Amino acid sequence: MRFYLPQTVISPLTIVRKERRLPGRGDILVREGDRVEPVQVIGRATVPGEFRIVNLSQTLGVPRRAVRRYLKVKPGQEVRKGDVLAARGGLARRVCRAPIEGTVTGIGGGRLIIEAPPQVVEVRANYPGVVKRVLREEGVIIQIAGALIQGAWGNQQEGFGVLRLLTDAREKPLRVRMIDASCRGTVLMGGILADEDALNQAIEMQVRGIIVGGVAPELLEKAAQAPFPIVATEGPGSVPMSPRAFQLLSTYNGREAVVDGHFAGGRSILRPEIIVPLPAEPGTGPLELPSAPLKTGDMVRVVRPPYTGQTGTVVAFFEHRTSGYGEPCPDGEGDSTRRGVPHHRAGLQPGSDSVLTTDDRRQG
Fold first, then answer.
1. What one-character DSSP code corresponds to residue 138?
2. What does the pLDDT read at residue 289?
3. What is the CATH number of the domain that holds 107?
């Protein structure tokens, strides 16, 4: 039986190409070959405004057919937020006001529709690199050279800042006392995010991101609402950062980095990423993930308990998935450093310069 494993990447130097798209067709402000910075606007597009439906009948407390006699506006009329749309006099005076600025586009059935003005949306590069390709009226592809660390969980935010290491060990959690005014505008790195007060302090200090091994389950909801990117390299849970990821990120303490917390599962796998821009060396190219099945001799990193974060070499495969954790390997060499791990909990490392990890199993 062969096992093909979805992979995440840890690489000290590679070429990454990122697509930046406008929300609709618009104007591209850069050309192929241009060097861009994260805050640089690469394009802008005009998108339609939102619609709001106002229930006049309910607000005024009158039947739908009686609403028109109380109207103060008509279709096509522009209104500002707070303008009176309809009013009912008498002892029980009731007023219905516009919830947004816009144009009245329809009235009927006791309801009124307001369309907000179109909005001009600017898209920034978010990455320091070179424009490799321009997608006409749609976006650009930016090429970046640097270290790449893919994670297992992110909060769908993205940002850019200077890395700041706050813990001296991969299993140590971020604490409130570590986060002060000097952390403003930086990307914090630590072992684990398990303290709500530390997260609140980071928000108050206006940091630009947090990178940890794991996020405690009870903090996931609050972390998902943070105004800056949060990436967990190992995933949800009080899990220490893997030794390789911690060592690599520690090396780049004080350097600028891009933190992208966007991720999705299923068929279109999208991993959260940390990219540390570095000078490209001759011969550096995009990292190509191997499509070969997992085999004896491959380096692996475990991404599920009880050996989360540990690395090692595949020495044999169990014939049955019922084999327990810690069983001696079938080759009979079972020393204390060998562990029986179900295939869907292992990861692939094809070379010494990168680590490819996995979090589920596909059989071939």
1. T
2. 62
3. 2.40.50
**What tokens were used for 44?**
């802008």
Question: What digits encode the pLDDT tens for the residues 58-101?
Answer: 999 999 999 999 999 999 999 999 999 999 987 668 999 999 99
* Sign of the Cα pseudo-torsion (244, 247, 250, 252, in order): negative
The single-letter code of the amino acid at 254 is: G
Q: Is the bond leading into 306 cis (omega within 30 degrees of zero)?
A: yes
Structural domain count, the chain: 2
Q: 21-30, 49-58, 328-337: which has the minimum mean pLDDT?
A: 328-337
Contacts of 331 (CB under 8 A, 6+ apart): 315, 316
Question: Does residue 236 lie in a domain region?
Answer: yes
> E strands, 225-272, where?
230-236, 256-260
Q: For residues 62 and 297, give the distance between their C-alpha atoms in angstroms, rounded to a whole number.
A: 77
Give me the domain span that covers residue 249.
Answer: 152-262
User: What DSSP element (H or E) covers 245?
Assistant: helix 243-251
Please give the DSSP secondary-structure letter assigned to residue 264: B
Higher pLDDT, 5 or 43: 43
